[in-house]
Amino acid sequence: MKTDKHQGKPAPETGVERTTTTPETAVFREESSFFATEQTSVSAAGVMTNQEAYGAVEYTTGRDEAPARQRYQGDLSESQLRLLQHLERLTYSLHGPEESLDRHSYNRPFPPSIRIDRM
Amino acid sequence: MFRQLVTVGPTPGNRLNNINSLFTYHPLQIAAITETVWQNRYNAASSQTSAAFSPWSPQVAFPILSANYFSGYDWSSTGTPTVPAAPANFVKPLQQPGIQGTWDGVSATNNAHATNWDHLIYAYIIENTRIFDIFSKVLETYMFTEQLETPSRESQLFWRNLESLIFGDAVPSMVWTTTSRSRRDEIADRLTAYYWMFGIDLSHAQEIAVRHPYQKPVAANRDFIDTFEALAREVWRGIVNARNTSGANDTDATVIATLARRLYDMMATRRISGNLAREEFRAVSIISFLHLAVQYDSPAVVDLKASASSPEMRLQKIAERVNLTCHVKSKPFFDLAAPFSTLLQSIESGAFNTPAGAQLLYTQTPPNVVSRNAEEVIDQYSLATGRDLKARSVLVSGHASASSMPSLRRTPAVPAPAARRLEGQNGASH
After folding, report:
1. Which of A23, B106, B267, B358 could be bridged to B257 by S-S, CB 3.0 to 4.6 A?
2. Measured between beta carbons, which residues in chain B are less than 8 angstroms from residue A63?
3. How far is CA B251 from CA A61, B248, B406, in A?
4. Torsion of CA B90, B95, B98, B103, to 10 degrees
5. Which residues pair with A3 in a beta bridge?
6. In angstroms, how far is CA A42 from the centroid of its own chain?
7. With an 8 Å Cβ cutoff, are B351 and A105 in contact?
8. Is B167 exposed, middle or buried (0-12, 13-18, 19+ CB in 10 A)?
9. What digits encode the pLDDT tens for the residues B13-56?
């Protein structure tokens, strides 16, 4: 790990010396050549092109369709079913609005109503 | 956290009105919301990782949450000034689905429902899109220049909340206040928390570190990614084999359970007695506030002329207004964050620590949310990182003892001298 002494930041109250730590790990790294190209592009369309090239846009898993043929897996035991119910409850409490928001993106009832009330 | 506030609850209601209203609340009301969500957390007790920190009591929070929209008086007419009506479709804080029906601290009946918020991995992944830096730059541009059009009134309320709650000095008594004179730099602290929990940095951490030098704890989960990827590959084998009708079945529930247990242990070790709980709460809260702002054509998006059909396109258009660019893989990041958060919370519940429990990750009869969610994580993770989790792990090694399991711990990085001194003085406390 490479460390450099950083001079620009005031020392914290503890008086402990701070260092700038050069990052060494990044899973979601931006590939240097790919990103260098992107840096020069300021258009939103450029990003979409890249994503299509990467295959992100059209990628589907078909996971909602029940598999037509399956290996016999046996029934879940009582304890497995209870565990599944617990996990479904945990999952439900993390649901977000992603599913439906974009459908309403162009129909924003609330902000116009502020203008109406101001008049 | 704000994602769950506007959607989950006994009565889901109109999500768009909920989010629009959230952005117009008084900062103190948003503060009371966060305290109430924490108060009702599902894991407040009965676990080695439960956090004991007390938030504002319901008696303090409820009067604030019950208040209606009230911006001032209308003095234009003669006589007694009138109070302008609340905007149509305005949702009071207490009526937000995530906290509706929680205990007010007075009533004899308590119909509270548990609240939950995302795992820290959600904040990590969304922040990789550079959303925090982009909104920070836009706010700065609004504050000091007229390069951008003057924001509308509803947009002004949003930016006020953003500045007050996310970039401002927080209320000292709040649970989600994690800055003080001894740790002033919240951005640096957040990067430290990411490294602590996952052993990895943001993709643009090098740029951030110039202005926000941060510490990398020696005792970090540096095995996280290796272990997770090994788990994901085994789970994918399980999904494939569950759908096959013939051929060899190399699914190994015991290996999956062992890897899940390893992830469970490394997370639990960091979280003992609620350690890092407030930092995680703060991080996912502020990132979800920003995330909501680009999930639809919100007032801030419209005023920045960034209307688009998806979050990543809106973010990119906003970034262009201030001469920045978002991460090119923002789409898989936005798609990965929520399922990954769900999966890691499930793993931390200990549900997959036994072979019987691990089967839920891939079994298809009955079709269950757990396996579908795991599959989505595997898909999106591969897209986001470029590492194909559906390919079998191949080790090129001259050693006969090479194992497909990740080693228990990599050779620890040599700590920086300052970090060594910090450890010596403060231990692992945070």
Report:
1. B358
2. 372, 375-376
3. 21, 9, 18
4. 160
5. A21
6. 22
7. no
8. middle
9. 688 888 889 998 999 999 999 999 998 888 888 888 888 888 88
* 8 Å CB contact between B111 and B11: no
Backbone phi and psi for residue A4, each to the nearest 5 degrees, phi listed first: -125, 140
Q: How many Cβ atoms from other residues are within 10 Å of residue B229's Cβ?
A: 19
At B207-223, the pLDDT tens digits run 888 888 888 888 889 89
Residue A95: which of B8, B202, B309 has the nearest Cβ? B8
pLDDT band at B405, cuts 50/70/90?
low
- What is the rounded distance in angstroms from the CA atom of residue B31 to the CA atom of residue B170? 9
| Cα–Cα dist B328/B318, whole Å | 14
Please state the length of chain A. 119
Which alpha helices (DSSP H) does B77-150 contain, by range?
120-127, 131-144
Which helix (H) or strand (E) covers residue B212, if one does? none
Helix (H) or strand (E) holding A3: strand A3-5
Measured in angstroms, the CA of A89 and the nearest CA of chain B are apart by 10
Predicted confidence (pLDDT) per residue in B161-193, tens digit: 999 888 887 777 888 888 777 777 888 889 999
CB contacts of B416 in chain A (<8 Å) are 1, 3, 19, 21
Please report, for residues A56, A98, B100, B232, B342, the alpha-carbon distance to residue B120 in angstroms, rounded to integers and kept in the order given.
Answer: 24, 19, 25, 19, 11
Core vs surface per residue B31-42: b (16+ CB within 10 A) or e = bbbbbbbbbbbe
- Asked if residues B22 and B30 have their Cβ atoms less than 8 Å apart, the reply is yes
Alpha carbon distance B416, B345 (integer Å): 32
How far apart are alpha carbons B362 and B364 in whole angstroms?
6
Task: Give yes or no for B21 touching A (CB within 8 A).
Answer: yes
CA nearest to B243 within chain A: A70
B234-237 contacts at long range (C-beta below 8 A, 24 or more positions apart):
B234/B259, B235/B361, B235/B362, B235/B374, B235/B378, B236/B375, B236/B378, B236/B389, B236/B390, B237/B392
Complex ipTM: 0.74
- Distance between CA B43 and CA B47 in Å, rounded? 7
Q: Are B32 and B57 in contact (CB under 8 A)?
A: no
Q: Please give the helix or strand (H or E) that residue A4 lies within, else none.
A: strand A3-5
